[in-house]
Structures are given as structure tokens and as C-alpha cells.
Design the sequence.
């Protein structure tokens, strides 16, 4: 396992797959680094170590799951995601939690030692608000209680009689926490900070974005649960520019994927920059973060992927606008009119 990677190296590797979100990347990298360092130390000195689980707050489709997945891949540790909402919808929370840990063991190919150093990502913990009088099978609050037990570290008996110790498993919780900003603005006061020059403004913004445990309580997390998530990091809403970069820059960016696919048929894909801007515009309107990009892009490519196999003369496809049909070109840029199937 490459757990000895310094934080800067972790961030560089994350950069290859995740656009922006610098603050979250740094916080995650440092947290991961210290987590695995502490574990090594505990193994050598046989000391108890306090674990620092992480809470990631950010709007939908901004890279929370992607960051965790990428992180687990970089570290080469087993990784599973669990959905807090579905935990709250079952009557059998402890069985569900057991199943999650069982999946982690499967990801580790049955290697218990490896599984016990894995990462569990619990998404949508913001949906576990403690509120009274709900009709759901299990209240969010009792799911928080069940989760905090395993986050703390305890031996959990799996169905087949094995025990998995969660002490060194890193838990990363995620959620959109809609409405948290209102709580933050309400609870922050900076009477003593002058806001004249740019630097102070930056510090102010950072403090402003800082989430205090009490804010999480006001949001609806129970104190014990919030208390087990000492590291809180926030992801930003994606900007138009970030959306464009997401389509083109990461290693498996959607544009690269389709270019490679067409290239395999000896066809060049040429997309004007304005098209990426148009797609980003639409995606921002759909308000699902980067998640809508793929759908819009694939829709644009459907006719093209339909036409190419039937028209071997096509050597190049040029898209000048999302709202115009693509141009098909053959040898020496001659126009090709694809047969309609
Ligand atoms: N910062 C980013 N850099 C690169 N790609 C991104 C980024 N954010 C989102 N994406 C793309 O959007 C998809 C959805 O992102 P992801 O699953 O990480 O969202 P999320 O923050 O977990 O949202 P949710 O709260 O709905 O679970 C990813 O698979 C990825 O393709
Ligand atoms: Mg997610």
C-alpha cells in the first residue's frame, strides 16, 4: 500500500482526476497521510490512536464521491460506499451495516487485515437529521447512533462468524447539507477582524466557510455523531470554467473517451470550444453539478455514433455548435452525407 505518500503527492495524483476543489484535496490528503502514519505507529508502539474521520460537505455533483474513489485507488486500499438514506429506510440497520463491512472484506478479496485498513464512504449523512414524528422505518437519529459505534472502532460480527475490527477503518461521510450556509452566516461574527485589504478578506472568507460542530448540531446531527467527524471540509459549487475543464482535462475526461472511441474507427473528432461552453451552460441550468455533462455530451454524440459504422468514408466529424448538425468530412476534407439508417 502506498500509504507513505506525502500529502503533496496525494494532491498531485488527485489533480489528474478531479478538477478544482483544492481546499478539500489538501484537507483530505493531510488527513489520509496522518491516518495511515498513526496506524503504522500504533502497530509499532502498540498505542491507542484517535481516529480522525472526515466529513465532506458540498453540493451535488461536485466531486465528493469521485474524490473518495480516486483516493482509494491512489492508496490501493479497499473502498466501499454506503448510502445513509437507504440505512434510514430499513428496519435492520445493524444487518445493513454488517453488509457494508462485508462488501469491504470482499473488495479486499477476503483479506481481513487489508479490509481493516480500508475506507468506507457514507453518502448523504445530511439526510439523517434528527427530527421527530417521521414515518420512516428507522429514524435518522438511530442510524446516526448505529454508525457512530462502528466509526468509533469496534469489532463487528459478520454473518459468517468472522469479526471485523473497525478501529483503523477510515470513515468519510458526505452530504450536501442544504441550508447549512444560513446557519453559518447566523452563527459567525467577526467584530475584531478588519476587512480593508485583500488578504484579510481571504482569511475572513475561510473562517466564514468553516463549519463548527455546533452548526452541525443545529442542522440536525446528534452531538456524538458530529463529534466523531473532527475533520470537516467543503467542496465548492462548480464554475462554468471548471465544467469545461472537467469535459476535457482529466485522464478519463468524456471528450477524451469519445475521441479515442472514434479514433479506433480512424475518425477524427473536432469540437469547437464554443460547444463546450454551450454544454457547460446547460449543465449549470440543470443544477446537478458535473453530473449532467455526460448526458448532454452523449446526446450530442448519438447521431454521430449511429452514422459512422455505416459510412466508412467518414474521416472527420466537426461540431461547430451544440444546436447545429455535425459536419461529416471524408478524405481531403470533402463533405460526406451520411446515409440515414
Ligand atoms: N471536481 C470534479 N472534477 C472532475 N469531475 C467531476 C468533478 N465533480 C464532478 N465530476 C463528475 O461528475 C460526476 C458526479 O460527481 P460525484 O459523484 O463525485 O458527485 P457528488 O459530489 O458525490 O454528488 P452527490 O452529492 O449527488 O453524491 C463524476 O463522476 C465526475 O464525472
Ligand atoms: Mg456522491
Sequence:
Amino acid at each position: 500500500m502506498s500509504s507513505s505518500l506525502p500529502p503533496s503527492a496525494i494532491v498531485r495524483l488527485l489533480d489528474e482526476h478531479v478538477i478544482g476543489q483544492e481546499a478539500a484535496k489538501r484537507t483530505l490528503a493531510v488527513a489520509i497521510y496522518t491516518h495511515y502514519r498513526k496506524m503504522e505507529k500504533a502497530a509499532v508502539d502498540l498505542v491507542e490512536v484517535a481516529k480522525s474521520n472526515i466529513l465532506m460537505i458540498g453540493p451535488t455533483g461536485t466531486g465528493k464521491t469521485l474524490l473518495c474513489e480516486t483516493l482509494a485507488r491512489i492508496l490501493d486500499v479497499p473502498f466501499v460506499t454506503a448510502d445513509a438514506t437507504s440505512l434510514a429506510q430499513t428496519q435492520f440497520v445493524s444487518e445493513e451495516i454488517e453488509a457494508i463491512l462485508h462488501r469491504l472484506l470482499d473488495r479486499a478479496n477476503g483479506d481481513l487485515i487489508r479490509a481493516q485498513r480500508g475506507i468506507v464512504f457514507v453518502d448523504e449523512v445530511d439526510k439523517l437529521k434528527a427530527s421527530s414524528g417521521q414515518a420512516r422505518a428507522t429514524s435518522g437519529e438511530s442510524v446516526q447512533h448505529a454508525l457512530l459505534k462502528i466509526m468509533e472502532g469496534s469489532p463487528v460480527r459478520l454473518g459468517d462468524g468472522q469479526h471485523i475490527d473497525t478501529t483503523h477503518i477510515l470513515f468519510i461521510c458526505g452530504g450536501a447539507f442544504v441550508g447549512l450556509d444560513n446557519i453559518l452566516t447566523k452563527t459567525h461574527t467577526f467584530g475584531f477582524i478588519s476587512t480593508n485589504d485583500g488578504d484579510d478578506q481571504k482569511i475572513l472568507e475561510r473562517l466564514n466557510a468553516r463549519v463548527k460542530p455546533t452548526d452541525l448540531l443545529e442542522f440536525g446531527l446528534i452531538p456524538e455523531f458530529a463529534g466523531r467527524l473532527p475533520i470537516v471540509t467543503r467542496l465548492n459549487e462548480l464554475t462554468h470554467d471548471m465544467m469545461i475543464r472537467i469535459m476535457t482535462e482529466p485522464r478519463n475526461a468524456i471528450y477524451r473517451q469519445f475521441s479515442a472511441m472514434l479514433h479506433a474507427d480512424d475518425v477524427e473528432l473536432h469540437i469547437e470550444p464554443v460547444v463546450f461552453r454551450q454544454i457547460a451552460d446547460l449543465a449549470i441550468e440543470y443544477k446537478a453539478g458535473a453530473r449532467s455533462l455526460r448526458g448532454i455530451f452523449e446526446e450530442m454524440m448519438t447521431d454521430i455514433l449511429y452514422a459512422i459504422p455505416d459510412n466508412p468514408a467518414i474521416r472527420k466529424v466537426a461540431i461547430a455548435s451544440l444546436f447545429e448538425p455535425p459536419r461529416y468530412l471524408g478524405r481531403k476534407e470533402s463533405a460526406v452525407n451520411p446515409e440515414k439508417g
